[in-house]
Specification:
about 240 residues; mainly alpha; Helix Hairpins; 4 helices; about 5% strand; rod-shaped
């Protein structure tokens, strides 16, 4: 005949193992949601970074265009002055200024073309990443809804098991046994009742004596592992 107290302890252990698992799953839900949110935030920050780069490039392009316009105006002035110079030295000096500004303008135009290509490329990147962000936000919304539903279901199951556990604890007449079970649960990593398989305590993996193993297999007595002090029961 199976010891009723032992049977209750075995059931309690099963409930506590399930409770521990449920508590971990519930605790993971906000972490999973937060991980997705961080991922979306990184994409949003990437969009903001590229947009800032585009704005900076646009600013540089406008400044270069103004500089280019100013240089062209100055070149026109120098050309008008060429018509009025009286010596070759003055002519050569003005022509050198014109050539210098033309060379500078060529570099400015090259830089402007480069910026225009870069701006176009960055704008395309912004559009692409913005779509990714929108998709990620939608994914987060659905994931959050699903996970919150899972969390509610898990919490309902948690409450049900807690009630069943409380009923079993109240059914145990030996309150010192309840205290010892609770203590072992705390100090032995959530395992207060361990199965014995092939003569070995699965809690601490120490072999029992043949006599004790035989007694455990009967499930008629409330026995404890000599090493880890967990309550024992035969797995078969």
């Amino acid at each position: 005949m199976v010891n009723e107290t032992l049977a209750t302890l075995i059931r309690l252990q099963a409930l506590d193992s399930t409770l521990s698992k449920l508590e971990k799953e519930i605790a993971e839900v906000p972490k999973q949601i937060e991980a997705l949110r961080r991922q979306a935030e990184q994409s949003t920050q990437r969009v903001a970074k590229v947009q800032a780069e585009v704005q900076q490039m646009e600013k540089e392009r406008r400044n270069l265009e103004l500089e280019l316009e100013g240089n062209e105006t100055q070149i026109s002035k120098y050309r008008n002055q060429l018509l009025q110079v009286k010596t070759n030295k003055e002519y050569s000096a003005l022509q050198l200024e014109i050539d210098t500004l033309k060379s500078k303008n060529a570099m400015i135009e090259e830089r402007i073309l480069y910026l225009l290509d870069e701006i176009e490329m960055r704008k395309k990147e912004v559009a692409r990443v913005s779509k990714e962000v929108a998709a990620e936000q939608e994914k987060i919304k659905k994931f959050t809804q699903d996970k919150e539903a899972d969390k509610a279901r898990l919490e309902e199951e948690l409450i049900r098991i807690q009630k069943e556990k409380q009923t079993l604890l109240e059914a145990l007449s030996d309150k010192s046994l309840v205290q010892e079970y609770t203590r072992l649960l705390r100090v032995r990593g959530g395992i207060a009742v361990a199965a014995v398989e092939n003569g070995i305590c699965t809690g601490c993996h120490v072999s029992l004596t043949p006599q004790m193993f035989a007694e455990v297999k009967t499930r008629e007595k409330l026995l404890r592992c000599p090493t880890c002090l967990r309550f024992l029961y035969s797995a078969k």
